[in-house]
Specification:
Elements: H1 4-20, H2 22-38, H3 43-62, H4 66-85, H5 90-109
Length: 114
Amino acid sequence: MNTPAGLQARVALLAQGFRTRLPARFEQMDAAYALCRSDMAERAHWQELYRLLHSLGGAAGTFGAAGLGLAARRIEQKIKTQLAENDWTIENLNDIGADMAALRHMALSTPAPQ
């Protein structure tokens, strides 16, 4: 499997695994976001959501879903800014929630790359 075709097949298999695990990733992000909603001031909840988005952004870029990766990075950046400013409002919270809903829709409705 060290041939270019073998390597390409292995990458395709890994990409398929990435797409298969997307619903579970979103369940984790939803749970983290729910904790953020329940206690907006708790930095650990936001840091966990940031970590999950960062992981999704990197993996998406690796497996041919660049748009998904960029969208995850934009949300990640919003959280990073809010963590730095420590100025959480319900508007910020709702904005991030809406962005996450759009991200989920993008991820689960985009066909796998061929």
